[in-house]
From TrEMBL:
This is (S)-ureidoglycine aminohydrolase cupin domain-containing protein. Residues 64-137 form the (S)-ureidoglycine aminohydrolase cupin domain. It comes from Eucalyptus globulus (Tasmanian blue gum). InterPro entries: RmlC-like_jellyroll, RmlC_Cupin_sf, UGlyAH_Cupin_dom. It comes from the Eukaryota. Pfam families: Cupin_3 (PF05899).
Length: 140
């Protein structure tokens, strides 16, 4: 697969590296690759979508601080059902894959194993469980 970048515009390609007479490694900071920035929020912080807060793979010390492993557990097989949160729920998915669609929304929030999720009090939604769920949960 050929890269559409050209060495003449300051971008290096595998072809331009092979043609380089010196074959020296470029100095750090001289390569002009497209900037790919990963948001710390999307990697380890909390992301909120449609009123649902999701933290992907939170650090173990945070789970310990919250007491997650002492919370009750709940699980269900693949299924689809409506749910209304009469209280705020925080849950940590040990297993599973779910698409949660809040009432009135045209899109879903996908959650799965390793996610720490907060559902607001009063939210009505539909759970579409594609992979059996096993989770710790806590109602406030």
């Amino acid at each position: 697969m050929a890269c559409s970048c050209a060495a003449s515009n300051g971008l290096l390609t595998s072809q331009s590296l092979l043609k380089s007479p010196s074959r020296r490694r470029p100095k750090v900071g001289t390569l002009a690759f497209p900037s790919i920035r990963a948001s710390t929020e999307s990697m380890s912080g909390v992301v909120e979508k449609l009123g649902i807060k999701v933290e992907r793979n939170p650090p173990e010390p945070k789970l310990t601080e919250l007491g997650v492993r002492k919370w009750p557990k709940w699980g269900c097989p693949p299924s689809k059902f409506p749910w209304t949160y009469s209280s705020k729920e925080t849950c940590y998915l040990l297993e599973g894959k779910v698409k949660v669609t809040p009432e009135g929304a045209n899109e879903a929030v996908e959650i799965g194993a390793g996610d720490l999720v907060v559902f607001p009090k009063g939210m009505s939604c539909t759970w579409d469980v594609s992979v059996a769920v096993d989770k710790h949960y806590n109602f406030e």
